[in-house]
Amino acid sequence: MKLNLDISVPSSQEWIDAVMSDFDAFLQDHADCERKASAMAMSFVAKYPDRIEIIPELIETGVEELEHFQQVYALMASRGIQLQHSIGEDIYMKQLIKKCHSGREERFMDRLLIASVVETRGAERFKLVAEAQTDPELAKFYKTLWVSEAKHGHIFVKMALNYFEKETVYERLAWWVAQEGEIINGLDIRPALH
Ligand SMILES: [Fe+2]
Ligand SMILES: [Fe+2]
Fold it and tell me: Ligand 1 center to residue 49 CA distance, Å?
């Protein structure tokens, strides 16, 4: 299944350097991102209880993200790192959501496609983290995550294809991929996923 593997702007060397220079801070942010990804999948279930075709996959995705959170937290705990006390504003997600259509149907499609582009970016960045790791255990862990997030990138497009014409979905997805590239390019470089 290859539905979305596109990113318009590859992550920079500067970004991976920032991550590797403070990996403890990256882990703290990463854990929060996994927890938020789980909550996002479950928020679709809460907001769209009538979309019964996608609810089982949404629940499954929510569980997988929560498992990622569990795994990252275990890694943090073993290194004596705590979760962040206050979670800063998620500028990346905020900027993406600001660009959503306001109509109910269009917004539903946009939210699914945003989820897809965010997952695809996660996959791209976890791949870079896996490749930069010198610790074989961490390299293996991030490789597993990269595969899993790439799968999620496909799943959300597949969900959209249940309800909207293929052409409409792919045209809008291409637009979102371009928007996401601009947004990620404009973010400050930090040891964080976005
Ligand atoms: Fe995840
Ligand atoms: Fe994911």
Answer: 23
- Report helix angle 104-132 to 166-186, nearest 10: 50
Q: How far is the CA of 105 from the centre of ligand 1 (A)?
A: 26
Q: What is the pLDDT of residues 73-126, one digit of tens each?
A: 999 999 999 999 877 789 999 999 999 999 999 999 999 999 999 999 999 999
Domains in the chain: ranges and CATH: 13-82+99-186 (1.20.1260.10)
Cβ-based neighbour number of residue 1 at 10 Å: 8
Q: How many A from CA of 149 to the centre of ligand 2?
A: 4
Ligand with minimal distance to 154 CA: 2
Tens of pLDDT along 100-111?
999 999 999 999
